[in-house]
Specification:
Helices cover about 30% and strands about 25% of the residues. The chain is an alpha+beta fold. The protein folds into 2 domains: about 140 residues, Beta-Lactamase (2-Layer Sandwich); about 130 residues, PAS domain (Beta-Lactamase). The strands form 2 sheets. It has a 5-stranded antiparallel β-sheet, sandwiched between helices. Strands 7-6-10-9-8 form a 5-stranded antiparallel β-sheet, sandwiched between helices.
């Protein structure tokens, strides 16, 4: 079934954002036909306009075949030495590191999402994998048309927003809330590098120890309810700098809701702004909604 141009444009936007969020040199998104025997559409990013050639039978050997036959995330740290690399799309420069993710919906593989060549560091890590999962869920939502177009556009805009200079963080769904993305703004505000923050639970990273229990029992439930309803959750609170300094910040938590197969998960985007003395209307410390 041919896809509407508008749908492919949304998927291309998701792929273009993914390559930047995961700091990859190349990326591809393949959509399978109904029987799953061929790619109906194949999108690319980071290839200077040269569209990679997908294999004639995507169920064969290599990364794409593995993602279809055994739909689980796949990370390769040395693709040149791994048999799975034989399935990388053709006409790409030599690839060493690779992250593959199936796009699934209603128990069926609908396509593949692949990122190649991590620009910094030894290779793709678990936070990259979790972030790619969120992008794959968004792609599945687009394919299934289970969310209003306005919500899809809002999710894309939230992903786009974390690339801006402001202090922004992406975390996994509750209750884990591991940090998936930590931009330069967050690094400058809190002092933790991305290397130190990625994969850690956000409450363990920057919520003062003496406030964690109160936050968990009395503040977090209300915020989570707002997110599940698709609303932003603003609040003001003290957070910790790496030095141990308590910083008063204003935060907006925004939900990226994924509704694939009728199961909703919420990936959160946090935007922080340090409160200046002249901004403080309520001098009482604490985690006050505003």
């Amino acid at each position: 079934m041919l896809r509407p141009r508008s749908l492919l444009d949304l998927l291309q936007q998701a792929l273009d954002l993914g390559i930047r969020l995961l700091d990859a040199r190349f990326a591809s998104l393949g959509l399978l036909d109904e029987p799953g025997t061929a790619f109906e559409h194949f999108l690319a990013a980071g290839t200077d306009g040269a569209l990679p050639s997908p294999p004639p039978d995507p169920r064969g050997r290599g990364i794409l075949g593995l993602l279809i036959r055994d739909p689980r995330p796949l990370r390769l740290d040395d693709a040149a030495e791994d048999p799975a690399s034989l399935g990388l799309p053709g006409r790409l420069p030599p690839v060493v590191t690779c992250l593959g993710m199936p796009i699934t919906s209603r128990g069926k593989v609908r396509g593949t999402l692949c990122f190649a060549e991590k620009k910094a560091g030894p290779g793709f890590r678990l936070p990259d994998e979790r972030l790619a999962e969120s992008l794959a869920r968004l792609a599945a939502d687009i394919l299934e048309d289970v969310a209003p177009r306005t919500e899809i556009l809002r999710s894309l805009e939230l992903f786009r927003g974390v690339l801006e200079p402001g202090a922004a963080v992406i975390t996994t769904p509750a209750p884990v809330r591991e940090v998936l993305y930590w931009n330069k703004g967050a690094e400058e505000l809190f002092g933790f590098t991305a290397e130190e923050a990625l994969g850690r639970r956000l409450p363990d990273l920057n919520v003062p120890m003496e406030e964690r229990e109160y936050w968990r029992k009395h503040i977090q439930p209300g915020l989570m309810l707002r997110l599940q309803e698709g609303r932003d959750a603003p609040f003001e609170a003290f957070r910790l700098h790496k030095s141990g300094e308590r910083i008063r910040v204003r935060v907006v938590m925004s939900p990226i809701r994924h509704e694939v197969a009728g199961i909703m998960a919420v990936t959160r985007v946090y935007k922080y702004r340090r409160v200046q003395p002249e901004d403080i209307q309520n001098p009482v410390p604490g985690s006050d909604l505003f």
